[in-house]
Amino acid sequence: MIQLDSGAVRKVFSLSGAPVIALGDFFTSPDDVFLAFGKETPSVDDFVLDADESRKLACSQIRREARFYSRPKKESDKESKETKEHRRNGSADVRRSRDQNSPVYPASVTREFDIHNKIGDGNFATVYECRQKSTDKWFALKVIDQTKCRGKEMLVRSEVEVLQRMRHPNIVQLIKQIPSPETEELYLVMELVPGGDLFDAISQANQFSEEQAADLMTDLGQALAYLHNEQRVVHRDIKPENLLVVPETQFDRMRLKLADFGLAVEVREDEALFTVCGTPTYVAPEILAETGYGLKVDIWACGVILYILLCGFPPFSSDNSQEELFDKILAGQFEFMPPYFDHVSVAARDLIEKMLQVDANRRYSAQEMLEHPWMKTRCASPDSAMSMSTESMHFERKPTSSQSNTDSATSSL
To answer: Which of 22, 183, 291, 381 is 20 to 30 A from 69 via CA?
Structure first.
């Protein structure tokens, strides 16, 4: 309900000035912002946002996105060449959650665990909190609906095989798997990380200082250095939703754990992958170009995440179409847009540029990322606490070029 000082709402306009006549106009309008008026006459100045209003509304595209996955027409990922007979954007996966009203679990699960609240869902799976009866310890139960994986069974097998190998403090641990012959679901008992995910943290934060961002990127970099160097595994879906947050009450600061290995695969040193997959905002250009890719697609996604942490919106976005977004990624052009980057150091910008190199051969590795001077000098001291404002940074629109100064720096990679 809206209460105006001037009385009842008599007129509503979109930000672009179009009158709202019917309820449906709210949903068909290209605008996300609307202005309400009482008896007063609207003025042109009412539709011009000041700097503070622009900042609060400016930064969109940090939103939850479904990932895509499309197999090459030739069966193997190990081919030296890839056909272009399938669409570059792949096939979108439909996200559906398990029916909470009548969940049915096999005896092999209920004998050992009490199942509680749903805490997440994905393309093929739903995640619940569960308590182990014998120890009273809490875990996360990932329920994979194998009926949704027809033709993609290898993704499930690969995820389980990769998780069984992972032993790192910044990677979520698989405790055990529980097969269920009587159902078409697979049950994975995982480490429970109670702090939500980095997407939620970004949405709730007013800003991350460079020290806070460096701490978070250190956790991510260490997870990827282990994944790439010791396990030869590429994650292929690095994004804030897949970075779980360990609350700072358990440590001296907020910590991250990498999760969701549904697209992870082992890759040999001389091998190139060609499967088109990922999440649009974070996907690397070589995946879209279908020229073959390797471990460094994860580093590209790290560059996108660091950019978001420091300003609140991604370096590549489009209000028009996914195809336009992909074209921008392939071109590798982005701006350190003022005033959002006015406070960001040259060293931080340099690291972002090193991670967002279109040429994967010039792009940083996970180890080089960790050894960058900004990472070493900006990490908070052990006794420093993480502090974030609760003002939302989950904005509805990325700033347009008209909102930025003419001297904005463009990075062409």
So the answer is: 183
